[in-house]
Protein: Lon protease-like protein
Amino acid sequence: MPINRPYGGPSELPSLIPLFPLEGVLLLPHSQLPLNVFEPRYVEMIDAALAGGRLIGMIQPAFDLAGRPLDGGKALAGVGCVGRITEIAESGDGRYLLALTGIARFRLVKELEVGTPFRQGEVDFEAFRDDFTPGFGAEAVDRGALLRTLADYLDANELEADWEGIKNAPNEALVNALAMMAPFGPREKQALLEAATLAARAEMLIAVTQMSMARTAGEGDTPLQ
Structure:
C-alpha cells in the first residue's frame, strides 16, 4: 500500500493523536483498513486529521474477562494502532470513505480532557519500535501451518478464497490481513493486536481459528438417544 510519508521510528510520530474507538475493528502496521465515516464527531475528526498529520489512532473499548465493556463502554483498551489517511473520497451525503494505512502500535498513556467532540489521547510508541520495520520477524512465521489452518477453516465453512493471491502474499501481509478479516470477537482481536511478534500473531491466529472450528463442530453434534 503506497504511503507518501514514511515513518522511521517513534520520534517521527506525535505523542497526542485523535482516537477512533471501534469495537471488533483491527488495524495492524503496514496493512490497510477501509472505513465509512458518517457520525458528525468523527467526520470532524477526519477534517482535523486532514488539516494536520493525517493520523488517527484506532483503538477498541476495554472489556473485562467475561467480555463485558468497562465503564459502560467508555474505557479504552491499553493498546491501539495509529494509521495514516492514504485514500479518501467524499460521498456527497456527508460521509467520508477512506483507507487508513497502519504505521505502528501504541500504548495509551492517558485520554485527554479536550474540547473537541472526538476523543484524543497521549500515546507512546516505544514498546513497538519493530513495527516501523516492514516485514520484521516475517521469516519466523510458520506459513505452512497457517495455510493449512486457513484451508481447514474454509472447507469447514464451505468458503472459497483467492489461493493464487494468498500464495503470492508476503508473510507479513498474509498474517495481518487474515487477523484483520477474521470473524472473531473484540477480545480475540485485541490479543492479535498485542501479539509480541508477527510469528506470535500467526500462532495465535491458528489457535483461535482451531478453537472456533472445534466449537462449531461441537455445536453440530447431537446427543445419542
Summary: Helices lie at 40-51, 143-156, 163-168, 171-181, 186-194, 198-220. The two ends are 56 Å apart (CA to CA). Residues 221-225 have pLDDT under 50 and may be disordered. The first helix runs from residue 40 to 51.
